[in-house]
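Sorry to interrupt, but I need a hand with the structure work. I would like you to pick a protein and set down its sequence and fold. Please put the record directly below this note.
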Amino acid sequence: MALLGQKRPARKPTRREKEVASRGTRNASDADSQWLTVDRLAHDGRGIAHDESGKTQFIDQALPGERVTLAIHRTHKRFNEAHVRARDNAADSRVTPPCAYFGSCGGCDLQHMALDAQRTHKVQVLGEHATRNGVTLPEIQPLGEDESRYRRRARIGVRVTDAGELQFGFRGRGSNQLVDITTCSVLVPELDRLLAPLRELIESLEAPKRLGHLELTAAEGQVIVVVRQLKAVPRDAQRWQAFAEQHGLVVGWRVGRDPVVLEWLSGTPNAAYSLSVGATTLRLAFSPGDFVQVNAALNQRLIDTAFEWLGDVSGLKVMDLYAGVGNLTLAAAAAGASEVTGIEGSQGMVDQLMVNAEANGLAQVSARRADLSKALPSLEGIDLLVLDPPRDGAQPLCEELARDLHAGRVSRVPQRVLYIACDPTTLMRDARLLQDAGYRVTRALMADMFVHTAHLESMLLLERAED
């Protein structure tokens, strides 16, 4: 690390970068000669325009209504990918990005767009996915918070180049390179203010090349840093221990390659978050590697909205698939369901769910592990099915529900399905299966869980007619 802070010689471009630059050069004259008007946004937030020949142009950071000339950086047979070379006017929705790293960091892609416009766009995206799949939706309810400092978890890359230069931050847009950061406008404050001190610490380590990345978690009253340590370095462990004491952190490192061993260097974590259900406040403990929603405020509002839609669930039998540590499982039990079963693919999270159920006095909760891509649970007698799957969705389960309905096996089909999704494509694919079998979507919501990005969370309530 002796070379840190010194000016480095310019890095030679990679072959991939040379190819991209070459493609851009071949098309630059065509792009420069045309002023194009941006018609709309693509689902990923890029502007869409068409050149004089009708070819589609996907334009980074361009907004509807803007008149622009382009620099094309990638060509395809039917479309080009480009960025703005010159802009004749600014859209009403354009704002100054709050982050100095916007445009280079790959974490946020919509910071140039006003928050209300971002949410309008995401509602449109959800509706377009429904239309494309033939799913009939009621009016889509947008759900969002004004606070943009929402991320309570983050993974920070660490790399030391052969020249001794430290790279500390998130991956760049369309690149494997890390963008150096000292602050992040979407992290919760207790994580954001750690970034600069963490960088300084890493610069002082004996063997910073032994680091892979850092995982930061802000729990209630506790901040946890887990260091991916490729090989143990005792003197660096002492530096991490001193850093943890100085900043009031819990620090651990995952050491080695095969196997990887987690060792806590300063205390042990006691990570948890609170969730309100009516007059009841639940405390859900979790481990640093467990899945929890990164946006605590939106998670609470999503739970509030779900039980507003569902109404009185007293006495119902509920099954929660992809249950995690009990976010919806425990909420359903606290709302009065008589029997709630959580099913999750990770045994560690199943165990944590049951610890959480016992700690909150919810004796009607049970949980078990199952690989839901291979083994589908019996839904006999279940009144309400809750789904919160990963991006792949829940196609096998929805196909099974559809087969049961078509065959008249209604006792094996829940009256209602509450489906929460992080991918609108797979959500609407699955909703179409259920709709064709006799369900209808009675409520729809777009939750802006990931502010300043094109990603969206959504929730549907599907109900089937009484027999």
The chain has ten helices and 23 strands. Residues 115-133 form the longest helix (19 residues).
